[in-house]
Design a protein that fits this description.
Elements: H1 17-24, E1 30-35, H2 43-51, E2 56-61
Parallel strand pairs: 1-2
Length: 68
Amino acid sequence: MRSLLYLFGTPSQERFWSMWDALLQGALGTIVLVDTQRLESSFAAVDFFENRRLPFVFGANCFDGEQP
């Protein structure tokens, strides 16, 4: 059995969400990468994937002086 993983970086602004829908076609799940210095900006992405009932994992960068 062969597995493939495709990674696409997409802007998180709401105006690009139509692009997200196109990229999600056939997807088994997603990865939400978050900058801990801008944690509040990740909530919209999490909501987006939860509303589409698509499994996701949440990864966070860790910078000096910031808590994940």
